[in-house]
Please model this.
Amino acid sequence: MALLKHAQRGKKILSLFKLAVLISGSGSNLQAVIDAVSEGTIPDAKVELVISSREGVFGLERAKKHGITNMVIGRHDNEKLSKILEDNKIDGIILAGYLSLLPADVVKSYSGKIINIHPALLPMFGGKGFYGIRVHNAVLTAGVKYTGATAHLADREYDTGDVLVRSIVPVITGDTAETLQQRVLEVEHKTLVRAVKALTENKIDELVTRPVTFVQEEDKEGLHEFAHGLIALGRALTDADNGEI
Ligand code: GRF
Model:
């Protein structure tokens, strides 16, 4: 009856895009998605479920605080995971620091609707064994000038799906793996939110065709050259402070 009244008044009845966020740790990326949904940066979406592969992680506390249904599902309990996603009519999955591969049937049913955030510029420093502080140690050992974060579509391999959004972080003299990890984590949030927004707005294909790269004006010399190289490769560049350019 209530629905009918709405329709009669000519109002649009929206169905929210239901997200399941999968975590294994502190959940700061989860928090970024929750905040973006509640602030309206990601409109018409809802974080329906938070699933952790580990007991006792802080990400579960964040879910509780926001009244989001949350649970622990062990990394080998594939059937349970598939059923929960189905029972809750989940539309898309976000891997926010989730340290396992998804079961094949989930990857198949959610093809093009699973986003992972990785703390480096893929395809560099990605794949099996590249997680947590190990990624940043590898970046320092390689001696590269830039690292960053990548949001990409997830498949049955580690870190191999189509890139959607990247953010660039310069490596600076004196960086340790820990300082780098902290600076990269800060840009991960914005990177992930940009990709999740596209997912919930059914615009993932646009990012697959033309991934977005965030750069920061204050980043040191060489970055503009790097950015022009990306433009030459057909990438869309985004000024981190002023929006897309
Ligand atoms: C992030 O660096 C993420 O990219 C990586 O694990 C970390 C998780 O951070 N895969 P949080 O749990 O979102 O705070």
Remarks:
- The longest strand covers residues 45-52.
